[in-house]
Design goal:
With 256 residues, this protein is α/β, with parallel strands linked by helices. It has twelve helices and eight strands. It has an eight-stranded parallel barrel with strand order 1-2-3-4-5-6-7-8, surrounded by seven helices. Helix 3 links the parallel strand 3 and strand 4. Bound molecules: 2-phosphoglycolic acid. The site of 2-phosphoglycolic acid (PGA) has 13 residues, from strand 8.
């Protein structure tokens, strides 16, 4: 393993796991992954499990992440959670603009950018998700779509904030479908995103930013994906729900 940037492997548990189930999973992960130093490991449980999981990961090498947050700091926003509330549980990362939120909650690039600014203001590092649909890929619009998403979702961030932001490239056609982008497809898009970051910020910032791949990452494909020069980690959904597969993804990734 000789990566330019430290890997960051995050498990997005989505709307799964009761508190008891979340604790079982994270306890297993702590045991399985105690020796890993070469990658940042993040678990993103549902909000309801943050408090208990936060206590469980204290003094371990596992960091806590959330799956979403409000762009507002407080007030009359029924059902929303603010960055300051996440800070109470020592949340270090927050996933923003996941394709499921873009699709089901109609989150726009502009909203994602506001959320990213709010998370940085609270010293929570965002994981900003971008990715094209199958029809966009098939009609050769991948770069155009990503250009719009990257510019819009990261608008207004300072260079310092951008360096502390993780970008997750998640082709929508690969999420939960069992279809993974080929390593060549992933590398090509990651390189493109890094070149966009160089244009929008600077070469130095672009070199610094970690770009995760997401979409049907499994133990069997993690090593090959992580071996790509511009792939700096993974955002894992389905395979993060079980300790064996998530732990193997982390171990195979650091062996890349
Ligand atoms: P998947 O989900 O690993 O189940 O494809 C990835 C994600 O949505 O972050």
């Amino acid at each position: 393993m000789n990566k330019e940037r430290k890997l960051i492997i995050a498990g997005n548990w989505k709307m799964n796991k009761t508190v008891a189930e979340a604790l079982d999973l994270v306890r297993d992960l702590k045991l399985e992954l105690a020796a890993i130093k070469e990658a940042d490991i993040v678990v993103c449980p549902p909000f309801t499990a943050l408090s208990e999981v936060s206590r469980e990961v204290l003094n371990s090498n596992i960091r806590l992440g959330a799956q979403n947050m409000s762009e507002q700091n407080f007030g009359a926003y029924t059902g929303e959670i603010a960055a300051g509330m996440l800070k109470e549980f020592s949340v270090r990362h927050v996933i923003l603009g996941h394709s499921e939120r873009r699709q089901y909650q109609k989150e726009s690039d502009a909203l994602v950018a506001k959320k990213a600014l709010a998370s940085h203001a609270a010293s929570i590092k965002p994981i900003v998700c971008v990715g094209e649909t199958l029809s966009e890929r098939e009609t050769s619009q991948t770069e155009k779509v990503l250009d719009t998403q990257v510019r819009g979702s990261l608008a207004g961030l300072s260079h310092e904030q951008m360096e502390e932001t993780v970008v997750a490239y998640e082709p929508i056609w690969a999420i939960g479908t069992g279809k993974t982008a080929t390593t060549a497809q992933a590398q090509e898009v990651h390189k493109f995103i890094r070149s966009l970051l160089a244009d929008l910020f600077s070469e130095a910032v672009a070199r610094h930013v970690r770009i995760q791949y997401g979409g049907s990452v499994k133990p069997a494909n993690a090593r090959e994906l992580m071996a790509q020069p511009d792939v700096d980690g993974a955002l894992v959904g389905g395979a993060a729900l079980e300790s064996r597969s998530f732990a193997d993804i982390v171990k195979n990734s650091v062996a890349a």
